[in-house]
């Protein structure tokens, strides 16, 4: 149910990565984003721990499977189905838009495996960074305020990613993650729906933590993040109902 791209592939949503520079893009500008249609084919979007307080109110937070699991906001329960995108490719009003979505088509990346620095890059297939259109990204060789704001957002996002990795390392070290399974029985359906393929915090192990381990989690703020995840799981049932309704034939 919750999948992540292999480490050697580009991140979710990205088809290419090109370094942004005044030499290569002297007259390029950023057009206003008309829609979020690029998110239609996903049901699980990476989120950072900084977002947990907001995300838990809107979407279930689960953890991906694999060697380096990441927190994921479920926007659907079936592969490739975003239930929060309207028919005209707008995000459903009133629901939080994850930073991972808002960051696209930009991101910070190393231009080579040996590089120690991160460079501002973008997906040149996005269609919103165009020559001689939109808000200019450079004024001569200098970055405009638009580019500076983009860079600041991407830097803050990377810092949040580092905090998220530390959180995941702590969960792994304490062996708190387990394979998740959710069974939903809806009136009118003969068989219950069963969802697997994600990880979640094992509440029994959480309750059995030693006093010093629990105290450390409280002091670091990690325990609050764990409970944000656990509380958010109650949203899986409403998400299933949303999916069920979306699957019904439209009235003529």
Report the helical percentage: 25-40%
Number of strands: 15
**How does the overall form come out from the CA principal axes?**
globular
Give the count of helical stretches.
7
Largest sheet, strands/sense/barrel: 3 strands, antiparallel
Query: How far apart are the termini?
Result: 32 Å
Quote the beta fraction: 15-25%
**Strand arrangement, major sheet:** 1-7-6
Rounded Rg: 20 Å
Question: How many structural domains can be distinguished in the coordinates?
Answer: 1
Secondary-structure element string: EEEHEEHEEEEEEHEEEEHHHH
Mean pLDDT: 91
Q: Unreliable runs, pLDDT <50, ≥5 residues?
A: 1-8
Structural class per helix/strand content? alpha+beta
How would you summarize what this structure contains?
The chain has 252 residues and is an alpha+beta fold.
Describe the protein's architecture and organization.
This protein has 252 residues and is an alpha+beta fold. It has one domain (18-244). The chain has 7 helices and 15 strands. The strands form 6 sheets. A 3-stranded antiparallel β-sheet has the order 1-7-6, covered by helices on one side. It has a 3-stranded antiparallel β-sheet with strand order 8-2-9, with no helix packed on it. It is globular and about 60 Å long. It starts with 17 loop residues before the first strand and ends in a 5-residue tail after the last helix.
């Amino acid at each position: 149910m919750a999948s992540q791209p292999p480490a050697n592939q580009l991140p979710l949503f990205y088809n290419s990565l090109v370094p942004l520079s005044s030499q290569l893009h002297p007259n390029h500008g950023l057009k206003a984003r008309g829609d979020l249609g690029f998110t239609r084919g996903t049901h699980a979007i990476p989120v950072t721990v900084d977002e947990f307080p907001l995300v838990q109110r809107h979407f279930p937070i689960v953890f991906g499977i694999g060697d380096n699991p990441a927190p994921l906001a479920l926007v659907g329960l079936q592969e490739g189905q975003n239930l929060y995108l309207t028919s005209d490719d707008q995000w459903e009003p009133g629901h939080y838009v994850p930073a991972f979505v808002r960051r696209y088509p930009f991101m910070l990346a190393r231009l080579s495996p040996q590089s120690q620095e991160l460079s501002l890059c973008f997906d040149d297939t996005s269609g919103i960074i165009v020559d001689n259109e939109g808000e200019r990204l450079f004024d001569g060789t200098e970055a405009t305020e638009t580019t500076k704001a983009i860079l600041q957002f991407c830097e803050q996002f990377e810092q949040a990613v580092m905090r998220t990795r530390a959180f995941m390392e702590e969960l792994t070290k304490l062996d708190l993650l387990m394979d998740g399974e959710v069974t939903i029985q809806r009136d009118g359906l003969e068989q219950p729906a069963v969802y697997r393929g994600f990880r979640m915090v094992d509440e029994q192990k959480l309750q059995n933590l030693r006093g010093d381990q629990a105290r450390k989690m409280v002091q670091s703020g990690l325990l609050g993040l764990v409970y944000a995840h656990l509380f958010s799981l109650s949203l899986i049932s409403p998400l299933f109902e949303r999916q069920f309704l979306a699957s019904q034939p439209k009235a003529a």
